[in-house]
């Protein structure tokens, strides 16, 4: 089953803003449903460039959407937006949408090591065919202080970061942590039961921290956003959907910075972030933490 996109109709409505043509970028192609919805709302003067850092995603969507001649899939990190557009000889765009994080397809693929129950090597690299540090490497090599800092900063795990880091360092003296299931259990045991949330797994923040670090998610978002603003035509829109406060803060602060002098390039369309309805959250649990922000190039 492909990924069910969050805030699909609302986000595409903001992106197109009644436009039927133009060059649109889906910076996080995923399973391709957002792109398909955009394509179905364009006439033959419109095209979509879909970018994803995950090669398996690109292969899947290239097949899924091969009947659309106005769709191009590009295997790249969207922080390289300028490189992608230069190669395609595109010098300005009419809008860009980013639906951040990972897809259900990536989460459900046991071998990728994103899920709490996975017994594969804990990897978490989104761009599997590339080199780079995996979560396994971080858990094996970072010293206790750096692990604590990582969990505090990228996981926003204020209270238990130190204890979890210390347990990891003790555990790896006998054997490195190999799998997500082992890490999830270690974290569960490090946090006293009375502090376990009923809503989320106790290891959620630790997994978030590792994923952000492994994939340089925050740096990619910041760079990608800045580049997108530079390529937007006047009236073109940026639509960003984020799933945790670190991402949302970057979107909010970047939009704010570029909506004020001396860098005034954007008009903020959503004064407050748009959230999914309760009905959507009931249908799709992934929607529960989503926030959408929209800005328009002046
Ligand atoms: C939530 S999914 C997108 C789902 C998509 N809207 C759909 O309809 O299926 C996020 C996707 O963005 C990709 N991604 C995350 N950060 C990226 C980045 N910096 N550059 C390119 N792709 C990225 C992930 O690999 C994943 O496939």
Describe the protein's topology.
Blueprint: H1 8-16, E1 22-26, H2 33-40, E2 46-52, H3 55-64, E3 71-75, H4 81-87, E4 93-99, H5 104-108, H6 135-141, H7 144-155, H8 161-174, H9 180-190, H10 204-214, H11 217-231, E5 232-242, H12 245-257, E6 266-268, H13 278-283, E7 291-297
Parallel strand pairs: 1-2, 1-4, 2-3, 4-5
Antiparallel strand pairs: 5-7, 6-7
Helix pairs in contact: 7-8, 7-10, 8-9, 11-12
S-adenosylmethionine (SAM) is lined by residues 3, 5, 28, 30-34, 51-54, 57, 77-79, 99, 101-103, 126, 220.
Please give a structural write-up:
With 298 residues, the protein is α/β, with parallel strands linked by helices. It has 2 domains: 179 residues, Rossmann fold (3-Layer(aba) Sandwich), CATH 3.40.50; 87 residues, Putative methyltransferase TM0872, insert domain (DNA polymerase, domain 1, Orthogonal Bundle), CATH 1.10.150. The protein is built from 13 helices and 7 strands. It has a 7-stranded mixed β-sheet with strand order 3-2-1-4-5-7-6, sandwiched between helices. The longest helix has 15 residues. It is globular and about 60 Å long. The protein starts with 7 loop residues before the first helix and ends with a strand. The mean pLDDT is 95. S-adenosylmethionine (SAM) binds next to α2 and β2.
Q: What labels describe this entry?
A:
DNA polymerase, domain 1; 2 domains; Rossmann fold; about 300 residues; binds S-adenosylmethionine; alpha/beta; 7-stranded mixed beta sheet
């Amino acid at each position: 089953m492909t990924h069910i996109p969050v805030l699909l109709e609302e986000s595409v409505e903001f992106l197109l803003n009644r436009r039927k043509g133009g060059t649109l970028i889906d910076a996080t192609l995923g399973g391709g449903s957002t792109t398909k919805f955009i394509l179905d709302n364009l006439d033959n003067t419109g095209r979509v460039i879909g970018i994803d850092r995950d090669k398996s995603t690109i292969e899947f969507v290239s097949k899924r959407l091969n009947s659309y001649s106005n769709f191009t899939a590009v295997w790249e990190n969207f922080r390289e937006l300028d490189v992608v557009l230069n190669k395609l000889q595109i010098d300005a765009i009419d809008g860009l949408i980013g639906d951040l994080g990972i897809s259900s397809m990536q989460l459900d693929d046991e071998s990728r090591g994103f899920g709490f129950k996975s017994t594969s090597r804990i990897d978490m690299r989104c761009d599997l065919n590339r080199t780079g540090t995996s979560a396994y490497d971080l858990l094996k090599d970072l010293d206790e202080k750096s692990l604590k800092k990582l969990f505090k900063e990228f996981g926003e795990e204020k209270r238990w970061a130190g204890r979890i880091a210390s347990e990891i360092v003790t555990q790896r003296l006998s054997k490195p942590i190999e799998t997500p299931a082992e890490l999830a259990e270690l974290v569960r045991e490090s946090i006293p039961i009375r502090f376990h949330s009923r809503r989320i797994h106790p290891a959620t923040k630790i997994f978030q921290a590792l994923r952000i670090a492994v994939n340089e998610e925050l740096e990619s978002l910041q760079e990608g956003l800045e580049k997108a603003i530079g390529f937007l035509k006047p009236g073109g829109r940026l639509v960003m959907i984020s799933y945790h406060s670190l991402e949302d803060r970057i979107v909010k602060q970047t939009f704010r910075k570029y909506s004020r002098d001396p860098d005034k390039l954007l008009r903020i369309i959503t004064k407050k972030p748009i959230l999914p309805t309760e009905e959507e959250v009931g249908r799709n649990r992934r929607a529960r933490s989503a926030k959408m922000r929209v800005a328009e190039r002046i």
